[in-house]
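Standup notes
- HV: blocked on the assembly model, inputs below
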Amino acid sequence: MSAVLKINGTEKTFDDGLPSNVSELLTTLEIDAATVVAEIDGRIIERKDFEKTALNQAQSIELIRFVGGG
Amino acid sequence: MAPQIYFELKNAVVGIAGLGGLGSNVGVALTRLKVGKLVLADFDVVEESNLTRQNYFADQIGQHKVDASMENFRRINPDANLEGRKVRLTPEKIIEVFKDCHVIAECFDRPDQKQMIVETVLTKMKDAVVVSVSGLAGYGRSNEIVTRRVSDRLVLVGDTVSGTGPGVPLTAPRVGIAAYHQANAIAEILLNELHTKLAR
């Protein structure tokens, strides 16, 4: 069954169902978990909790990504 | 008489996490703005390769960046109130070192370090705003570096995509643009939003 999440303001459809948690979402999107701050419906999810934080249909997710240099 | 903004900024406390290309330049701008107190944290020493973009001088090679920056900022303002911390920042240290700061400038180089400080400030330091930078490598494309308000407590500067890598060096002009975006965002927050807090 397909499912939808809003990621950084854009709706993304998952044809094979939602990734089961934040970690899995990042793997699907090919994003290194060590370089992202994740916010779900306005709440910051700590990196240590990525694996145990389940995702639900229609949630709004902000992924703030960091690249090197400073 | 000094303009009103200098009076207002004198009670502000700003933390600078990392004194490389961003932090060493952000500190110069905030010193010239006469921000009340700066808390400077870095464990590194100045190397010759840093001189391509960081605010140090050839005769400071080998000095701790904290010491060299304090020396440089005091040449601008001998009365500057500076606290230097030679420390490798961990989540616990970030909370301790920057506990009195109204705003914290994330001036690290590595993306996982940037992640660590932004996450720590947003989840553990409820009163502080963090101004972070992502995407400043290379040269040119000045106008692709932007300041974006992500949320009440997070400002993100940069083009979000230009990381360092093979053939993509950090250069003085583009790092400088990002650093001054960062300093300008801090000035704006202190003057527009923390105004009432600072007047107390």
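- HV (later): unblocked. The first strand of chain A starts at residue 3 and ends at 7. Chain A touches chain B at residues 32, 34-37, 39, 42, 44, 46-47, 62, 64-70 (CB under 8 Å).
- Next: hand off to the docking folks.
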